[in-house]
Amino acid sequence: MISGALYALMAGFLGAVASSSAKLSLGSEYLQGMCEICLKAWARDGDHSVMEKETSPCEWLHIPLRLLFGGMLFTCNAVMWTFFSKALRHSSSSARATVTTTASNFVSSAFLGKMIFGETHAELWWVGISLMLSGLLVLHGSTPQPFQPAEAKKNK
Question: Which residues form the signal peptide (predicted)?
Answer without folding.
Answer: 1-22
